[in-house]
Design a protein that fits this description.
Helix 4 packs across helix 5. The protein folds into two domains: 265 residues, Porin (Beta Barrel); 113 residues, 2-Layer Sandwich (60s Ribosomal Protein L30, Chain: A). Helix content is 22%, strand content 32%. It has six helices and 16 strands. Strands 2-4-5-6-7-9-10-11 form an eight-stranded antiparallel barrel. A four-stranded mixed sheet has the order 13-16-14-15. The protein has 459 residues and is an alpha+beta fold.
Length: 459
């Protein structure tokens, strides 16, 4: 093969790779419901048919100036295929064939037209032809049973053709050939010069482009009918002629394709995701399963609603609330019961209103929203009287003493900052932290520890 052959081979290879890569890459993840593992993806095929020295798209061959001069002599062509289906849209196929291509040019048979050899007919023996094809599924058809039974496809590939053209001076392809270089191929041929090699066949690159249709005969066997145009990079496909164009031919074939693998799995070639989804949605058993699932979800939602219901709004759901109907705004513990705070010292009764301690969550110095109303009242009183206040912060007994001292100081400062933001002068507020000191309840129980996490307000 010359430089032109190499260049065209590279272009064709790039085309096949570009078309195939997108589908193969997409098929790395499941593309059809459960993925390729639920399908049969390998198949082998046997095929046979005929060849003609022209193609549907027209054009010329070198053995004559116009396609119309060719008599469509029929040659035999047969072979096999091995295919891997990557998705319901794309597969890769290795195809091998052999046979012959025949042509007769009636213009050359007249006294007005001659060739150097006096040849009027040519028979090209294809010793073997091998190609790698990308196969694109164009669509499937189903019938009354909604079973995909007909599949349309197109293919394009790149291959190598080993052939030997033989020319005759009669249209019956018999007698002594006027041109036959069998056993001489292997070197470049220019014009009418004969090759000087020792091979029986010359090699040429070719690009097969075709369409076809498959009929599903059973879960294993399909009837395969198709038409392929083969474009070669060989201007001696039919031997020397009156023009220097690349040879081409077509073949029509029929054959059987056998899908490999377990019959329990569907053939991916005939898979149609849309039809499968439609069938599944019409399946009564599937609808029953969907309805049952809806009921289970509805029941689960009802259970969640019951678990989250909080009738008295104290932040504890009814299922775990041991003290239902707690008045709004009451500070409660984890079981929904009010927290009992110690009564105010009598000496404070003459200095103004008593303010309950400000409670905090475990290991937190963030004010609870329920404390805002108490602090707003305190801030108003301090603004009106220009009075002062002492804030004593405390912690429960969890953690180290040093940590709890800092935590209690942070709690007192959190209350101070709220009062300052409410318009109270910072100089009139004294914030202290005493850690675990002066507990008002036992630190041996959670209920007691809740009461000890506090800031006391002293005026």
């Amino acid at each position: 093969m010359n430089y032109s052959t190499i260049k065209k081979t590279a272009v064709a290879a790039s085309l096949v790779a570009a078309l195939g890569y997108a589908d193969v890459a997409q098929a790395q993840t499941p593309t059809v419901f459960g993925g390729r593992s639920q399908y049969r993806t390998w198949s082998i095929g046997l095929q046979g048919g005929i060849t003609t020295p022209n193609v549907l798209v027209g054009g010329t061959n070198n053995f004559g100036q116009k396609v119309g001069y060719f008599q469509n002599k029929v040659g035999e062509y047969y072979g096999l295929t091995v295919r891997k289906q990557f998705s319901h849209l794309f597969g890769l196929e290795l195809e091998g064939n052999r046979g012959s291509i025949k042509t007769y040019n009636h213009e050359l048979a007249t006294p007005r037209a001659e060739t150097a050899n006096g040849a009027i007919a040519a028979k090209t023996d294809v010793n073997w032809a091998a190609s790698l094809n990308g196969v694109f599924q164009l669509g499937t058809i189903d019938f009354l049973r909604r079973e995909n039974a007909v599949n349309f496809y197109a293919k394009v590939g790149l291959g190598v053709l080993a052939n030997n053209p033989v020319q005759y001076n009669n249209e019956d392809f018999n007698g002594t050939p006027v041109y036959n270089n069998e056993g001489k191929w292997g070197s470049e041929v220019f014009g009418d010069r004969e090759p000087t090699g020792d091979r029986d066949n010359k090699l040429a690159a070719y690009v097969p482009v075709g369409v076809g249709v498959k009929f599903k005969l059973s879960e294993v066997v399909a009837l395969n009918l198709g038409y392929t145009m083969n474009f070669t990079d060989d201007n001696l496909l039919y031997g020397p002629g009156r023009s220097d164009v690349k040879g081409k031919f077509s073949n029509v074939y029929g054959g059987l394709e056998f899908t490999l693998g377990s019959r329990d799995k569907e053939n991916l070639t005939f898979a149609n995701p849309v039809a499968t989804l439609y069938d599944e949605l019409k399946d009564p058993s599937l609808r029953n399963e969907v309805e049952a699932l809806k009921q289970r979800v509805s029941s689960l939602e009802g259970t969640v609603d019951q678990l989250g219901k909080d009738s008295d709004g104290d932040g504890v759901s009814d299922k775990f609330d041991k003290c239902p109907n707690t008045p709004a705004g009451t500070v409660v513990d984890g079981s929904g019961c009010p927290i009992k705070f110690p009564e105010a010292p009598k000496q404070q009764a003459t200095t103004g209103a008593y303010f309950a301690p400000i409670a905090f969550e475990f290991d937190s110095s963030v004010l609870k929203t329920e404390s805002y109303s108490t602090l707003d009242k305190l801030a108003k009183e301090l603004r009106d009287s220009n009075g002062s206040v002492t804030l004593d912060g405390y912690a429960s007994a969890e953690g180290t003493e040093e940590y709890n001292n800092n935590l209690s100081k942070d709690r007192a400062n959190a209350v101070k900052q709220y009062l300052v933001n409410a318009g109270v002068a910072a100089s009139s507020i004294n914030a202290n932290g005493y850690g675990e000191a002066n507990p008002i309840a036992s630190n041996a129980t959670e209920e007691g520890r809740v009461q000890n996490r506090r800031v006391e307000i002293k005026k």
